[in-house]
Amino acid sequence: MEPILGAMAALALGALASLLLRGSPRLARLYSCGLAGAGCALLAAACAAALGGAQAAGLTWSGWFPFAALELRLTPLGALFSALVGACGLAASVHGLSYAEEYDHRAGWLGFCYCCFLPAMALVPLAANAFTFLFFWEAMTLASFFIVVLEHENPRNRQAGWLYLVMSQGATVLILLLFLRLHGACGSWSFADFRAAGPGLPSRTRDLIFLLALVGFGTKAGLAPLHLWLPQAHPAAPGHVSACMSGVMVKTGLYGFLLVVFGFLGPGPWWWGALVLAVGAASALLGVLYAVLEPDIKRLLAYSTVENVGIIFMAAAMGLIFSSFGREAAAAAALGAALYHAVNHAAFKSLLFLAAGSVAKSSGTRDLERLGGLIKAMPRTALFFLAGCLALSALPPFNGFVSEWLTFQSLLSGFGLPGTPPRILCLLAAGALALTGGVAAATAVKAFGTGFLALPRSSGAAAAREAGRPELLALAVLAAACLALGLVPGKVLGVLSGPVAGLVGFGGVPAGAASVATSGLGGCSPAILLAAAAAAAAAAWALGRRLGGPGSARRAPTWACGMPGLTPRMEYSAAAFSKPFRRVFGFLYQPRREIRPSAPAGEYFPASIAYSAGIRQLILETLYHPPARVLMRFSHAARRLQAGSINLYLGYLLVALGVLLALFLSGRLG
Amino acid sequence: MTAAPPFWIAQTVTFLTALALVCAFALLAFRSLHLGIRVYAAQSVLLGLAGVLLGGGGVGMGVLAIGLKGAVIPWFLFKMMEEIGVRRESDPYVPPALSLGVGVALALLSYAAFKALPGLSPSVAGGFALSLTLMLLGLWSMAVGRKVIAQILGILVVENGLFVAAISTEFRLPIFIELGLAFDLLIAVMVSSLLVSRIRETYLSIDSERLNRLKG
Amino acid sequence: MALLSVCLAPLLTALACLLDRDDRAAERINVMGSAATFACAALLAAGVLRRGPLLAWGGFFRADALSAFMILIVAFLSLVSALYSVAYMRREAPAGALHWYYALYHAFTSTMLLAVLVDNLGALWIAIEATTLASTFLVGFHRSRHAVEAAWKYIVLCTVGIAFALLGTFLFYYASARGGAPTLSWIGLAGRAGELDPGLVRLGFIFVLFGYGTKAGLAPMHTWLPDAHSQAPTPVSALLSGVLLKCALYGVLRFHILAARSLGPDFSSRLLLGFGLLSLLVATPFILVQRDFKRLLAYHSVEHVGIVAVGLGFGGFWGVYGAMLHLLNHALAKALLFLGVGDIARSFGSRRLHRFSGVLTVLPVTGALFLVGALALAGLPPLGLFVSEFIIAAQGMRSGHAAACGLLVGLIAVILAGLLYHVMPVALGAPRRRPPERPSWLESAPLAVVAVLLLVLGLCIPGPLDRTLSAIAELVSGGPRG
């Protein structure tokens, strides 16, 4: 535990330094990001070392509060998520060394909040009792709230911050109730006691706790339809913090869910898994379908987070279903897939958000409709962004491929389940996942193509320059991690078997889950694939040189169909690229389009055309607005109770007394 | 504990308290504020006499009641009404018939409440029940009265109810409590009258209907 | 000796302010008097903590753990508001009225201290009635139409309400005759609690809860609260919301102990729980649609008094512990917010806070303190109210009131949404205009101290406080820490 304490100390020092150096923004930025990076590195190393170990080192502080102590314990599952925090935090901090210059006018406060956000987020998976968990959970939410409203002059950021905090608090309320229920059952706050008492609870209580966990932790993770805060909050925060939020903070929601449902409750009825599968599939589809239409690059990535969280929960759902039928090995494999995808998503989403941040800082805009041509101005950033996009689209040899493949295998193994409903469900879910994968690839192409290729669409994009060296370093490391995670799946699964064992109680992910999952369904080794592809490419190049003779390349402008030159107006716009999806899925988007030509001389020669287009926010309008409207209408009506007349108030007094006396007489008051 | 009072005293006290109850109902029925103050004065005198008759600690309190509530406070109120120049009539919010009906219901409720307590001797139960009735009737008359003076009268009737509770306990209340109650009543009336004059200044009326700017 | 000095100090201060017509001198006397009161209160509390309950005047005054806790809260908040008043009232009060203000202020404080220190329940009633009388003119100090209306509603509703509390007190007095000479002494009644007639105790407690509940702001008797607390001058609002409501709850609590010892804890706990939940339910819609900031804070007081009542209703050691801790935390948070709002309103020269924005940018210190107070009131860690709400909710689940616990936590979340919805546009955003003046350090320093205290209480519960709260919880629930 000592290295972790050291990491916390470094982060605390960073927070303090930030506050003290408020006056000189550059120093504040350097110190806060530097110390945060050092702390995160220490944290990642310490947690990685603890991944395989069965011994659980612990730390307890009591005496601060009389009713509960602050307890930390290094379990394999917790260590995994904390290691994720450390790794992504390290990358984000290194990136922030030069990126955060954009926020230098609030450097001190940003640095302070950042250095409070990271330790809170790191300690949530290490908490060993309910009070500690809630304490750091709330601290994490609050710190990230302050970062989201950092640029509070923009009303959209304020709106995003409010929605984020309110929904997080709603989630926390449910989680609090869950823990209180467990506490009521076993009388202590410690997770070990919850673990012991959970399986013995009556089944209705277990169902209730499961639902509270799904809704509460699902909101934090960003499962639809409770994901609305995500596309608003993540883009509002500075780029390096968005990376942490998307990459890691939603994973704490996943951690909480796995902890409660697998760790405390144990195997349950299969409808639990079915519900999570349905919700996960819905999230995946909704997330990616909104991502493909989104012109703002950071919102696009945020929606993609919703999609990937859906995929992770689908894998976790398969784990639930398998364990409820007693198939421990398959459950372990599914959970392995879920955790693998969580790690992968953390890696490539952080990469993408950091790159998007660099792009936004360099070109001054986040709008894909105004970017373009950046591959020439920022070649290295473009390369790393491409790597992230390939990972996002689940293409080999990157990491997204491996974990989606494993998820598919889990879903398809569902055919082996008894009874028809589970089989049909798995089939539908597999179809949804396939559709998601396809649309995700389209999204990635749109993001990269519109943002980086062709000509710059605005002056900002034209004036872009390559990102700073710390940013490039962070991006390079993350891209390499994406590649590495994709090339050695067997090793990664082996590392993950520790955490999975903690969840399922099985002997970890079976040796080479690839073999368990692939028996009968085919398997592959990405490393071999890559090697084969590289060999084939080299052979093709050599053959081409031999056959075609020494060639020389001629450089010329791109052919423009006879027009004098190419202009950015001739390129695909982001909206045009996603038009096919807008049409196919029109029932979901309900797009509307308005074209108003001003026509002094007929519609063929308009002087000007006004064009507006938009889609309907279906979930917002059908699920969020009606209850809010009802609540506000009720509140306005209730205000009439306080009508201002003292006679009315005296009447209330009389009625209250009368009711009390009547209850007393009827003996109801006991 | 003092011995039970002789028969004629008990009967007279019952008669006086019944009359006091009638006064409370009368407050609900009458619309005129001047008449209301006079009814209140009469009620205080009746209750004061009852207190004197009951003896023991009630003598001092009774005398104080007759003097303070029967004479000083009504004089004070009349003076205040003269200064303010209020109209004599005022329409209550609820028609008098309904008002009296509710009053009767409240009286029944309070008597039932104390009937349900087995641990009380009948006379004490009656005393407390009367006190609760007076307090409820006072509260009700405040709720239906339109002018702020009606609210002051209501508070005074409620305080009369407390007086009845104090004398029906058969034992002396500590003297400082009695003095404190009397002092408190005096201060309350003075404060209220000061406020009423301020209300008159700012609102140019003492219609409590006007005092409804603060809503919601 | 310390007991008497705690009551005498503010009375003497009030007298001195009244006699000395000079405004500046009144300000100085005010500050010295508040400091002296606080010092005496601290000494008394330390003495009680060390040696147990203290008596004076032959048992007429009695200070046990509960009283010591209350007088510390009263004296501390009175000191904070008094320091704040100096700069605030200098601009707000009409010339020549300042010494009246300070005289009434300290008289008000002395009545509250008196209420908490007397052992005799009749004297308790007189003191609480005296607080109403003393504060009426403070509420109506501004002499505007709205202030006069608020003062009238305040005095009428509170006076008639607590009259019923006196009836309840009389019933307890009568019930005590069974065991010997009738007594109004609380400690005497507590000793004989087993012999009191149960029917009388039931009915008496109903009246006391109704009566003191009116003064405490429990729904549906709270209707005077939004008007009175919003129209009073800001330092007085802070005292009214932060302390006076708690003194009324103190009265309820004393009788709750008696009823619990006599009837068992169920009867009074159920009543408190019912009123508490009703207060929460009633306060929620008003908070969601409230634009006037001081009224918003007043409704929050209704809500938090409801939470304290719910905590007492859940019962048990931890329920009472959480409720008392919440009492302290809320007093601090409410004072911080009221005074912060007052600062902002005065700097901008208008009370319509919803017209402002970007306070954090133009008034960094005040804006930050305001935001801290709002976050504290919403129940977010690491500030104090999170801890006390957590303890109360935990006890609720433990004692089997699962639905009530869920309702409590859910309503707190809804109210948080409403509060932040109103606070965020004011505190954050681009400022629309610069304030003509800034608050002085004398106004900001006490607020900063209160904010630091809230932060400390959110991170730990210091030893002496823990011992005091445990003593109170044992007193009320009758059981040891469990």
Descriptive notes:
By secondary structure, chain A is mainly α. Chain A has a domain at 618-666. Chain A has helices at residues 2-20, 25-49, 76-99, 107-123, 130-148, 155-186, 191-197, 203-221, 229-236, 239-265, 270-293, 297-324, 328-363, 374-377, 379-392, 399-413, 420-452, 459-462, 469-487, 489-504, 513-518, 526-548, 574-577, 579-584, 586-589, 618-638, 646-666; strands at 58-61, 70-73, 592-598, 608-614. Chain A starts with a helix and ends with a helix. In chain A, 56% of the residues are buried. Mean pLDDT of chain A is 87; it is low at 506-522. Chain B has one domain. Chain B has 7 helices and no strands. In chain B, 48% of the residues are buried. Chain C folds into 3 domains: 1-119; 120-263, no CATH class; 273-482, no CATH class. Chain C has helices at 2-19, 23-51, 65-92, 98-117, 121-139, 145-175, 186-191, 198-216, 224-231, 234-263, 265-288, 293-314, 316-348, 359-362, 364-378, 384-398, 402-427, 441-459, 463-477; strands at 54-56, 61-63. At the A-C interface, helix 5, helix 6, helix 26 and helix 27 of A face helix 6, helix 8, helix 11, helix 16 and helix 17 of C.
Task: Please give a handful of descriptors for the protein shown.
heterotrimer; A: 670 residues; mainly alpha; two-stranded antiparallel ribbon; 3% strand; globular; B: 216 residues; 7 helices; 0% strand
